[in-house]
Specification:
alpha+beta, HTH_ArsR_DNA-bd_dom, four-stranded antiparallel sheet, WH_DNA-bd_sf, single chain, Carb_Metab_HTH_regulators
């Protein structure tokens, strides 16, 4: 677990060391970091409530973790806020993820490498397809509730992704004259990816996620950039002026990727 070094405690006049508060501070800081990992993007107020720590203490620890480069602020639009400022929410940086998750990342990477050795790359592909098919099944009712409009479905998908910690947003890009109306689109951006480092080695994770988005939205989407390949965010181009495709059932989509 990551700990930020704290100053040495002062001594009593008699020469005996004062009770060391650093251990307690470090433990609280580690709890804050763990909570950001588990619940991020999360606000300082939410962290204070779940950890039973004063707002001032939470912000002090968040400031230290941000300065250390393991936590960063994401501004997330909150429904019902109108034209007000986006909420400040905290997520782990790539450095923070690797700092506290090296063992798990290493285990996951070795497991996938072993899976590829035993079953070939197709076995890794099948695993990735199954993972995102499960996500697709969870998101389908949320996206369907937005109706048939592709832009509305895109925003519903962004909300579902944000609830899962992807820090997503959907922005409309309208085709301007003399450009034809069919060039209108939505850009779906994700500022956080929990499998970023694995996806860098196994791009099929990004490919499978993109295919799941296409089926959820009912249009042929295109990935413009990914965090795994060094992009600032994952950006997906979603055309809104084209004819809809027929969304595939997630289970059917998974079976289509199975190898004989």
């Amino acid at each position: 677990m990551y700990s930020v070094t704290t100053p040495k405690p002062a001594q009593h006049a008699a020469g005996r060391p004062a009770p060391r508060p650093a251990d307690s501070e470090d433990r609280t800081r580690d709890r804050v970091l763990s909570a950001v990992l588990e619940h991020g993007p999360v606000s300082a107020a939410e962290l204070g409530d779940m950890l039973n720590v004063t707002p001032a203490a939470v912000r002090r620890h968040l400031d230290a973790l941000t300065e250390a480069g393991v936590v960063e602020v994401k501004r997330v639009a909150t429904s019902g806020t109108g034209a007000g400022r986006p909420a400040r929410r905290y997520v782990l940086t790539s450095r923070g993820q690797s700092t506290i998750g090296d063992d798990y990342l290493d285990i996951a990477r070795k497991a996938l490498e072993r899976l590829a050795e035993v079953g070939g790359r197709s076995a890794v592909e099948d695993f990735a397809h199954e993972r995102f098919a499960a996500m697709e099944r969870r998101y389908q009712p949320l996206v369907d509730a937005a109706g048939d409009d592709v832009e509305a479905r895109s925003r519903a998908l962004a909300e579902a992704l944000t609830a899962d910690g992807f820090v997503a947003s959907a922005a409309s890009v309208q085709g301007k004259a003399p450009l034809p109306a069919h060039l209108a689109s939505v850009q779906l951006c994700q500022g956080h990816c929990p499998v970023q480092q694995l996806a860098a080695e196994f791009p099929v994770f990004c490919d499978s996620e993109t295919a799941a988005f296409s089926r959820l939205l009912g249009v042929d989407v295109r990935r413009l950039s990914t965090l795994a390949q060094g992009g600032h965010v994952c950006t997906t181009h979603i055309p809104t002026g084209r004819a809809k495709l027929t969304p595939a059932d997630p289970e059917t989509a998974t079976k289509q990727h199975e190898r004989p």
